[in-house]
Write a structure and sequence with these properties.
three-stranded antiparallel beta sheet, 13 helices, globular
Length: 397
């Protein structure tokens, strides 16, 4: 989210003291600061991190991508497929480098059955919501015919082993956009936040120009004109609409030359296990393994646990900082109060109101300084009359 982006930007500024190469804009190459390995070694030398052999193996993969990106001269993304003449789509006028695309207003589109045509069953209607027909590769380009981009990275491992910090602190700051490129040239985002955005943008395209049919080719082109390196955190798939969108969209993003860096608790082959119509999702897994260097971070250290042990929570008695408190009685209520007091560490607290997609969420008690909020289970999960249940978008924002 935004806080992660701010941390990434601060890391970039901290690394600007290293030598910086400024290639000509015509080369479409990256600017460069310290490599991931150089930045990692500096953090260890400064005492900010303890050297971890498993993390060093991951850093070697990040260093490889850093070198590949410096040597790469990306071409403009290929245009979407040709459309029926009755459809007009006003696409981006510049790409992620601020250079003209040659587009802006041209006929394009893909013929498709309308969701309201009554043809097909539930599966066909669901496919039409994310674009395309029922085939797993209906109208989708072949990766081999796309832009030859550097292989991205798909890093997976257990919670707390350091995947996100390696990505945020050492990879993202080492890949800087060429001069004049868009602000989103390198974009770091949580997968579910990204999926909500693309579903909303696809819906908007369908409403504005229903004659276009499948919106995914045009959405993929727009995204490719905004972003060259997409950094996705916490890749996990549980919803069939998300699974289908990932398969269709990322085939085109990879084809367009987008470099993807992702973290996950699951290996690619374990994504969406047991999901509805999973065979239709499997091409996404194949694409990830073809266009990303899959690496398991096998650190045996849980850094989240170590961080908790070094925090004020460690000073609480064993019954005050467990995973959960049970049963609900005066003793556990007292433990919960001590836990809250340790979290806010004396900072001021007050009720707050959050605005979420046109509605509001009342926060009973929060501390901006400590970045902590306190709710009851009923207030978060909507189990009391008059309290609307929250959805994934509410929790992300």
């Amino acid at each position: 989210g935004q806080s992660a982006l701010r941390r990434m930007q601060r890391s970039r500024r901290a690394l600007f003291t290293a030598s910086r190469l400024l290639p000509s804009r015509e080369s479409r190459c990256l600017c460069s600061v310290a490599s991931p390995r150089a930045a990692y070694d500096a953090a260890v030398a400064a005492g900010d991190l303890v050297e971890d052999a498993a993390q060093l193996k991951a850093i070697e993969r990040l260093d490889r991508l850093h070198r590949d990106m410096l040597a790469w001269k990306p071409p403009p993304p290929p245009l979407p497929p040709p459309p029926p003449k009755e459809s007009e789509w006003k696409g981006p006028t510049v790409d992620a480098y601020g250079e003209p695309t040659g587009g802006g207003s041209f006929y394009t589109g893909v013929k498709n059955e309308s969701p309201g045509s009554g043809k097909g069953g539930l599966w066909s209607r669901l496919m039409s919501m994310v674009g395309g027909g029922g085939s797993s590769n209906d109208g989708e380009p072949d990766l081999a015919s796309g832009v030859a981009a550097p292989k991205g990275i798909y890093m997976h491992g257990s919670s707390g082993c350091g995947k996100s910090i390696l990505m945020d602190r050492f990879l993202a700051p080492s890949i800087l956009p060429p001069e004049g490129a868009s602000e989103a040239w390198v974009r770091r985002v949580h997968l579910h936040e990204f999926l909500m955005e693309v579903h909303q943008r696809a819906h908007k395209l369908r409403q504005q120009m229903p004659e276009l049919g499948d919106p995914v080719p045009y959405l993929a082109y727009e995204l490719s004109c905004e972003t060259q390196v997409l950094v996705l955190d916490e890749v996990a798939v549980t919803d069939i609409a998300d699974a289908l969108m990932l398969r269709k969209l990322f085939r085109r993003l990879f084809h367009n030359g987008m470099v993807v860096v992702a973290t996950s608790n699951r290996a690619p082959d374990d994504l969406y296990l047991g999901g509805l119509q999973r065979p239709s999702f499997l091409p996404f897994i194949d694409d990830v393994k073809e266009r990303c260097d899959v690496h398991e971070l096998q650190s045996t250290t849980d850094y989240r646990t170590l961080a908790a042990e070094a925090s004020p929570l460690a000073e609480l008695p064993p019954d005050g900082a467990g995973t959960f408190l049970h049963p609900l009685d005066e003793a556990t209520g007292s433990s919960a109060r001590r836990l809250w007091e340790a979290l806010v560490a004396g900072s001021a607290t007050a009720p707050q109101t959050l605005r979420l997609s046109g509605r509001t969420l009342d926060v009973p008690e929060a501390s901006e300084e400590a970045r902590a909020a306190r709710f009851s289970f009923a207030e978060l999960c909507g189990t009391r009359p008059g309290i609307a249940p929250l959805g994934p978008e509410d929790y992300l924002r």
